Amino acid sequence: MTEFPDVEYIDTLPEFGDARLRTLFDYWKGLCVGGQPPVRPQIDPSHLVRLLSIVWIFERETDGRYLCRLVGEDLRRVVGRKAIGEYLDEMAAEPGNSILKYQYDLVLDGPSVVYSNGHIYRKGLDRIGTGERLVLPLRDKDGNLTMLLGATTYETTGTRMKDAYPAGGDPVRRYVAPLSALI
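-> structure tokens emitted (183 positions)
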């Protein structure tokens, strides 16, 4: 697995720009028991009503691909399609797919929590957007770490990608915190 140079390993998550991410993190943390992340069936959508439009769930299959199980309405608008039942590598073009897969693998293999923020490029929109992403590990009904609970915020700034950053620039900050430091 190739390391991306902009991943910062931390013991405490930074302040979130969007309070909904803190709400999701606190809810998730409250379901953790004995140093273990919650089991998927513990997630109760009635406790996440204000967050549902930005929440998503992916499941890592045995071949290492990530299958989208749930995606909120705000995110459906950004990606321009339903997304549920699609694989990450079908939804995200390179290099985005590799970067996301790398982060998702860190969450499940760590286990860790990943938080990222900054300017996000959506290829289909050809626009820069400002966003945040929080990725949390979940166990499946059998207790295996195979699922991700996440939330992503995204606002288009209107700036065209080619006008915003020099070639090779990566304007996103990514933080990885070991689960053991957070719960």
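Strands lie at 7-9, 55-60, 66-71, 112-122, 127-139, 145-160, 172-178.
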